[in-house]
């Protein structure tokens, strides 16, 4: 192992001492500057490797005895540098300069050799670990009577990562302390946190997960699982095991088998450090209570449950109270961007009425306070008076919704903001919503462009009506919204549904249909009495749905959202009557791609108005019917974690302007059919680790303005035909660690304004023709930046060196 070579947790200090000696020499070693620069470069490269090994040794509790080779090399280097410091022009030691120069070169060579061996051994360790996990997977597959091959196993990012707590919290110091005492008490296996919706149960759980003492005790083995009303426990158990093990398991046959895997693994592997599993938003019911009873018996494991319901069978419970009066005032003013000493502070009586109307619930205070930010005092007074009329105590969740509804009253003069908020009820509870999907809906329903739609989303965020989910430090600068997501509190989603239900069915602008099993609403069965005039329809089904669709007459619908949870799914026959449909979004929430069929085997060719589609976890060959009519109006298509297979989908989409493919692991090459779509302006293929090459025909895409190949780690080069894309403005190959060179004639792309090559570790230099790109702004790492300073100094001002902060929260899949 690499640890055998370099020892334990003191390695960073050992290397750091030599590095400091190089820097301390300063001008005294001016005679040896060239070779010292080489040594400094080697130490720069070794330091992060050693740091990584330090952290792994610390985590794995590996022996910390330093090896003699490394310590000897570092000590020899320090002594040599001390001697070099005395070599000055004019004294006798100067005659020894050639001798010391050779010694320094020997040190540089030894460091190079050490680094090569270190990298080789780390590579060997990775292969050993992969082999070991493959062997373990084969055992699991045999236990599951599936006889699977180890090749079916995939390394994954843990699906149960604890989300970051991004907002400032108020009044949780005492609850965290009390909850921690209950959870860490000897004999306490499970603690249930209960409170009404909007009290801050999830925030409290996250605050606890990020507590330093909790993190030290559980040593990173903290898992966060959102459960909600109709959980798939088999999938939850599977995700927990995958998060703990870092590998993808085969799909288990039932809940019992998945639970047995989890229990077996905890018995064997979690003895040294206990595991904390947080089950957020558990709903009441005999099935949930029975499964909690099972989890209660897991070895080496602590369970924290948050729920609106109490579970009397479990003795340890914690009831989260609303904020006290002082903290309620603090949160209200914080949300309204007011200081307690501000001269613009509302009078005490008004604040008291608002706090009373919000019943000191954090969610209500935050939403109401945000809606009152920078509003005249008269609006504060009216709000306080209106909220005091209904009393200060909510007898039901309906009263909480009515309280939150008041935050939307002032949006009557901003109807697009209000309507967009209502549209968000069409997504599943606790779903991460892609900003690109929000943009697509706004473009069709409100005729907004990307900038206007993002301004609408920012307005919702500023009013605390949605929560932002930061993915990476890319921001909006490249206008790539496919990897920007947001969420919405389930109470606020309920508010949108509550407001929709106030209108008669036939007058609703939107329909949200949540079907459990085959239990469809009665009005739908007798729809001839209620023909729908909705422009947006959302239908959510679970794994028990048989795809037996009632008739629906919805000729005015322009946006259709299908939220599904099933291995197989039949598209509704009424789809072909939606002649005005412009946006189709199909999202599967099962762990495997859905195999889809349709009643007439021609699911899309009957939609003449279709402009934009998005598919999540869908088996794409459904759309490969050779007899399918062209979708001549389709402009944008997006795939997320889809299965492509041998598809010829592109032949039926001649007028596409934008293609986005993200996390589709079986996409090994861009189909040639894509290169025939000459109108294409944006091509984004990201996180597709199977992509190895681009077709030579890519040069046919003469209208392409954006080519984004972010995080395609096995892509090795761009073909020379890329230089025929004379309209290209943005080229993004960031995180393409295998790309070793760019086309020699890249300088012929005179419209190229931005090249993003951050974290392209194999790319050491660029073609000299790049100097001809006058408009270019280059984002890169330090090594390329240093090369550019020497090779093309006039480009130095156009180079931005960027170090990205790693963040994998957005992969909570």
From TrEMBL:
Belongs to the disease resistance NB-LRR family. The keyword Repeat applies. This is Probable disease resistance protein At5g66900. It comes from Cucurbita maxima. PANTHER family: PLANT BROAD-SPECTRUM MILDEW RESISTANCE PROTEIN RPW8, RPW8 DOMAIN-CONTAINING PROTEIN. GO terms for biological process: defense response. GO terms for molecular function: ADP binding. Keywords: Plant defense, Repeat. The keyword Cell inner membrane does not apply. Residues 1-153 form the RPW8 domain.
